[in-house]
Specification:
alpha+beta, Ubiquitin-like (UB roll), five-stranded mixed beta sheet, two-stranded antiparallel sheet, 16% helix, globular, binds FE2/S2 (inorganic) cluster
């Protein structure tokens, strides 16, 4: 199975490059597992992020074949192109800075009203 990872570092002044990796066929596996395999066995400089591995935290989101996916629970497919969800939030390769989204989740209610005590235990 081949996957292509669009690679770029924050602040880079050059064009993003595309690295293609030929992975062994291990049957159905997630995008995150494929990225982890590449990092462990082929290129340790790959930037990817994993946390809950259950599709709950959204830390691992990537753009896969043009569609935003939760990498830890979505199967990787042959020929898949994996890239960051937004280049303006890029940290490295597939990793983006989601701190603004996380802060917004805790600082505002669904109506957009400021909730300064939202994280304060009752
Ligand atoms: S690692 Fe938490 S949703 Fe993927």
């Amino acid at each position: 199975m081949k996957i292509t990872i669009v690679r770029e570092q924050v602040g880079s002044t050059t064009e993003a490059r595309r690295d293609t990796f030929d992975l062994p066929d291990v049957g159905p596996t997630s995008i995150s597992s494929a990225l982890q395999y590449v990092a462990r066995h082929m290129d340790s400089s790959i930037g990817y992020y994993l946390s809950c591995r259950r599709g709950m935290c959204a830390c691992c989101v990537v753009r896969a074949n043009g569609k935003i996916e939760t990498a830890c629970v979505v199967p990787v497919t042959d020929g898949m192109v994996i890239e960051p969800i937004r280049r303006d939030l890029l940290v490295a390769d597939t990793v983006v800075d989601l701190s603004m989204a996380r802060n917004a989740r805790f600082d505002f209610d669904n109506a957009g009203n400021d909730r300064p005590d939202a994280c304060t235990p009752a």
